[in-house]
Amino acid sequence: MTFENKVIWITGASSGIGKGLALELSKQHCKLILSSRHQEQLFSVKKDCKNQENVQVLALDLAHYATMSLVVEKAMQLFGHIDLLINNAGISQRSPIIDTSIEVDKKLMEIDYLGTVALSKALLPYFIKSKTGHFVVVSSLMGKFSSPYRSSYCGAKHALHGFFDTLRMEHEKNHIKVTMICPGFVNTNVARNALTADGSKQGYQDEMTENGLEVTVFVKRMLKAIQKEKFEAYIGKSEVLGVYVKRFFPKLLHKLVLKSKVT
């Protein structure tokens, strides 16, 4: 597939991977809808995009998942249709299970899982009617295997795979595609913004994230995976091997993760 002349909706577009996607895709003669909670930052991203006349901003908070039908109606009015939804928005978490408030678990599920699912379900009837459409979901390697201090995050990301694998099966007859993108460590602010045990932000970068892939490198690999219409793509450095070790040697992965510097 090609991105040319496509209408692409990106959530979490105000920073990190979402911003990187917006900047790269704006060079490829497509139309973009940029969404996140931070409207001012979205307009700043738009100013940095090429072909700004083809970029629209639509504020969106995934925590308000009951309103997604209205949000989709607004999005459809911007360019008349949508070809591809990139579900990129979300938050992370860093805290031991024993200390983590259930409210933190709830918030991760509401934003990373329910918000993403609600938005996609609201758009699904339009994809079915047009007999085409592509859902791209930015999950994580933590959606394939787990790591200490990320219990809420891992739970939400694992849930996304269960839901979207089903959606792919049910709607193959409608020519609807699903691509799950599983990043490893990418040098963004995801660790700084991760929620801790009481729901406050961690506020600092960790070594593994800082040494991860640069956003520009990650985005180019991600877009190639979307163009190839892959079911899943694992994008990172050596941490990607964890997917295959988990599949064939789960006890070995358990030991390796415990010995690693992941915190």
Architecture blueprint of SSEs:
Elements: E1 7-11, H1 16-25, E2 31-35, H2 39-48, E3 55-57, H3 68-79, E4 84-87, H4 102-130, E5 133-138, H5 151-170, E6 176-183, H6 207-210, H7 215-227, E7 232-235, H8 241-248, H9 250-259
Parallel strand pairs: 1-2, 1-4, 2-3, 4-5, 5-6, 6-7
Helix pairs in contact: 1-7, 3-4, 4-5, 8-9
Structural description of this entry:
With 263 residues, this protein is of the alpha/beta class. It is globular, with a radius of gyration of 18 Å. It starts with 6 loop residues before the first strand and ends with a helix. The protein has one domain: Rossmann fold. It contains nine helices and seven strands. Helix 3 packs across helix 4, helix 4 runs parallel beside helix 5 and helix 8 crosses helix 9. The model has no long low-confidence stretch (mean pLDDT 96). Helices cover 44% and strands 13% of the residues. A seven-stranded parallel β-sheet has the order 3-2-1-4-5-6-7, with helices on both faces.
